[in-house]
Design a protein that fits this description.
Blueprint (H helix, E strand, L loop, with lengths): L18 E5 L12 E7 L3 E6 L8 E2 H4 L10 E4 L3 E10 L8 E4 L2 E3 L3 H9 L8 E11 L2 H7 L3 E5 L2 H6 L2 H11 L4 H4 L10
Parallel strand pairs: 5-9
Antiparallel strand pairs: 1-2, 1-10, 2-3, 3-9, 4-5, 6-8, 6-9, 7-8
Length: about 200
């Protein structure tokens, strides 16, 4: 039997904007445990990403934050990371949106927020097209690369279908499974092994 299958190691792929960071099942940092992070920037200066699968303990809606949207359907705001939680970011597939940053794989970040408000008020579809986040994840110079070398993160490809359609509770498992073996096996690693 190949015993290497039981050693949880990063795939050591180089991260790039538009790709995803998938937390190792052994990473038990409060902010990043079982997280999937869409990488927005990655350079010599540092890296920035949005956590795609975390919610606030006390749910927040865009309707609460933007008075103009008070009468529209409930729009959740997810926990994008521990930094600058007072800043709203949005990941979307609206390629015509002025000022949007193209991430690749059909994904964009931010853009003309007034146009997004009008899109919502006009009844534009949200599910699978746009998600809102408060805060972001950030790494200083060389920090992310060190964490990858310590096997804290696996690198995957960003996919608008996966990131904007999958329920948050299954995004980590599905992203691990997308990497194939041995990651599929590691996706079954229990959150609290001592409970087994």
């Amino acid at each position: 039997m190949d015993m290497h299958i039981f050693q949880i190691k990063s795939n050591q792929t180089l991260p790039s904007p538009g790709g995803i960071l998938i937390a190792s099942p052994l990473l038990n940092d409060y902010h990043f445990m079982r997280s999937v992070v869409l990488l927005i920037t990655h350079s010599e200066e540092g890296s920035m990403g949005i956590v795609m699968n975390k919610d606030f303990r006390y749910h927040i809606s865009l309707n609460q934050l933007v008075p103009e949207l008070e009468g529209s359907a409930y729009i959740p705001v997810f926990k994008g990371g521990p930094m600058e939680r007072d800043t709203i970011f949005f990941i979307h597939t609206l390629k015509q949106l002025k000022g949007a940053l193209e991430l690749g794989n059909g994904l964009y970040m931010n853009g003309d927020f007034k146009a997004v408000q009008q899109y919502i008020l006009d009844g534009g579809p949200l599910d699978g097209h746009i998600r809102f986040f408060a805060g972001y994840a950030g790494w200083s110079h060389g920090q992310l690369q060190q964490e990858i070398q310590r096997n804290s993160w696996f690198i995957g490809k960003g996919n608008s279908e996966r990131l904007l359609h999958d329920p948050q509770k299954v995004l980590w498992n599905n992203s691990m499974n997308d990497l194939g073996n041995p990651y599929t096996l590691w996706s079954k690693y229990p959150v609290y092994p001592s409970f087994n």
